[in-house]
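Batch job 17 of 40 flagged for manual review because the log was empty.
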Amino acid sequence: MARNLTRRSLLAGAGYATAWGALGARLLSLAEAQEAPAAPAQQLALNMIFPNVAKAKIDEKKYIKNHMPMLRRVYGDSVSRIEFRTLVGPPTGVAAASVLATAHIWIKDVKAFSQALATNSQAINLDLNAVAKGPRIVQVDKLIAARGDDISQVEVGTQLLTAFFPLHDGQHLDEDYLVNTHIPKLYSIYGQSVVRRLTATLGVDQGSKATYKATTTLYMRQRNAYDGVARSAFGEMVDDIKKFTDVPAPEFNELKVLEIV
């Protein structure tokens, strides 16, 4: 079950609509302050996480059929890619998965995206309520490291191994080690025959601290190839994680890309 969920991160109902509108306004202020209306494609993403908690559920078919087309209409050319991922299960040796699904919206134009988000947050929320029940975590993630294929090469059906790092007061995460040592080491441990793409992102604080300070995502090239090295490689990965953070229990999940628009 999902852990480390704070009141500020559990966004649902009217509170969710208000928070999303406020997030759009803060992103817009950030863009205007930097005098940079556009950001490089796929460097920032709005990440929505659906925690695996009691009574939470999501209708995957309706999300794909109804909600994703709405998001594409609302955001238009301000985004480069919208990706919906659903749970396959926890990796071997992990007691339970922490999420049911995640949705990633890659921002191409920060200013245009922020305006669309602030203007349409209530309509987006009402539409989402028809397909998903339970809390939602919403944060902006910044891409800080990437190895392997471009994101455009990641197709529907691709399976992923994700590690979410919730960070609490007194805990640390060494960003330099994550970027310059951990990601290259993972790429080497698993190998190019297993890894299509490997990324690390940082949660951007927007008025309050991001629920997940960092996330790593391994896009599998072939599931069979991954299974062949998973047990030994997963152990090496966990050992190396201890060298850059004291987060006691990173949240590992296996997900599958179910739809891209």
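Reviewer: the log was empty due to a logging misconfiguration, but the result itself is present. The chain has one domain: 7-260. Unflagging and moving on to job 18.
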